[in-house]
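Dear colleagues,

I hope this message finds you well. In preparation for our joint manuscript, I am sending the 2-hydroxyacid dehydrogenase (Winslowiella iniecta) sequence together with its predicted structure, so that both groups work from identical material. I would be grateful if you could confirm receipt.
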Amino acid sequence: MKIVTLDADTLPVELQKPDFCDRWVYRKSTDERELLAVLDNAEVVITNKVPLRAEILKQLPALRFICVAATGFDCVDIDYCRQRGIAVSNVPGYSSRSVSEGVIASIFALRRNLLQYASASSREWLHSDHFCLHKAPINDIQDATLGIIGRGEIGGAVARLARGVGMKVLFAEHKGQQNVRSGYQAFDEVVRESDILTLHCPLSPETRQLIDHSVLAMMKSSSLLINTARGGLIDEDALADALMRGKISGAALDVLTQEPPHPHNPLLTLKHPNLLITPHIAWASQTGVSNLIKGIHYNLAGYFCGAVKNSVI
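The corresponding structure tokens are as follows:
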């Protein structure tokens, strides 16, 4: 059995070769132009973010199993795999604790304006006439309203932590959906009522640029936007404009549409006191990494034993 890992450097620890693997090709990174050569005669491929589209997959007759080293599997052409009988597994739930804690940490950082006060400590405080500095307003977390878009495992974990610190939690129904399910509120209502809006839905044709000019215009001017899901959920030009014009007060983004980002991404060039951008690491606590590695090996062992685990097809 030939197993190829395409982008091992996206993992902070190294995967170990399974005993049942005859050929273990462990690549730190792989350019899309290399895929056909690298995956020649491969039965199993492990990918995190390297895309596997139909035009590539149709030229890989030996391929039988794709293990996505993540929960999101938008990098794989699922429809083609279903037609061809290629099994596809992901690793669900491995980062729920890590990402949900990251969201809550971002809420504390932004609501309490820690970014501005931390930067002030080395300059203005030295020359202050008083023991404290009053700059940006500090807002409490308790009693703030958190709107959650996406009610999967991570969205649910965020809700539990948020309620634990006294926040009011609203789950948004799908955008444009007239029939609102029990336990949800209409999308537009959640957007208008939330002090913080956090995204936890998959990226799909229906959710691409879900947060656009019209949605941002509905948000409170004091509200915050948090995205730890997929960068493509947000129209980045619209968000940069909203931040610059004060239509919303801040954002915490762990993901961008293009990763690594383009140097001229409007959010990277925007100098905003309440914009926090991190390099797609909300998932990567030590617990999250350990869970991911275990999940990948679990999926590989399942395929080898003839029982595909965590199938997404």
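For the figure legend, we might mention the following. Residues 6 and 34 are 10 Å apart (CA to CA). Residues 2-94+287-304 form a domain with the Rossmann fold fold (CATH 3.40.50.720).

With kind regards,
E.M.
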